[in-house]
Amino acid sequence: xxxxxxxxxxxxxxxxxxxxxxxxxxxxxxxxxxxxxxxxxxxxxxxxxxxxxxxxxxxxxxxxxxxxxxxxxxxxxxxxxxxxxxxxxxxxxxxxxxxxxxxxxxxxxxxxxxxxxxxxxxxxxxxxxxxxxxxxxxxxxxxxxxxxxxxxxxxxxxxxxxxxxxxxxxxxxxxxxxxxxxxxxxxxxxxxxxxxxxxxxxxxxxxxxxxxxxxxxxxxxxxxxxxxxxxxxxxxxxxxxxxxxxxxxxxxxxxxxxxxxxxxxxxxxxxxxxxxxxxxxxxxxxxxxxxxxxxxxxxxxxxxxxxxxxx
Length: 311
What we know:
- By secondary structure, the chain is α+β, with helices and mostly antiparallel strands.
- It contains 13 helices and eleven strands.
- The strands form two sheets. It has a six-stranded mixed sheet. Strands 5-4-7-2-8 form a five-stranded mixed sheet.
- Strand 4 and strand 5 form a beta hairpin.
- The chain is elongated.
């Protein structure tokens, strides 16, 4: 039985973090990075800089240990000062296999960056609820684990020890999780979504039940009782933080699981229906079409065609 819906969703979206580059700088400097086509993260491991993001009114000052995550497709500039004319990042990193560079004497500043890969279909579940921009200052109480992770990432990059590539990927994954955890701890500022719901301790028992046994015919009374709330209070609070009613959340999670099974497995539709608690294939098909806009078989054919084209 699952007791960690957050891990369920990260695994479901195939979230995978990778360190992709770094640079050092000294004196006046500025670099313009193009709008990323993936979720981008970066951290200051030495010194400080200004971060100017397309669409944001004012630059943000980053100190040593600060971490940023950019989920929107926006260009951005890192600079020693906001008034320095930036050079294009593509020119700096244009060499074959080049992932590091130095500006000036490289003594004042050090940066490390990477991106997060998501499944092109199921990854929207995460990408669609992230804010355009997350900044976690090193001075915040949520950032206590960041310093160690950043130190280890730098050590793996510089020491070139056996297994460095895998170790860096695992550390980057932990960094991404810590960024999301820091964001969840400020969930009162987030719009209603499953991400905000995961941060709410009052409804956590219900979420664990639904993720642990998605095939069970849960009733509102059972879920409310698990949260030590009345049915009306539970339903109101759940909708306030999640944006949907509890049983709607359960149905939508079941359909996400069904999409993955239809795309990645050859399991008959009737068997998928049973595994998700539906007593008939027609009941499952109706629910699937209501949530996704397609029948299960149409979805499976489309997924197979997309995979063939990708090959």
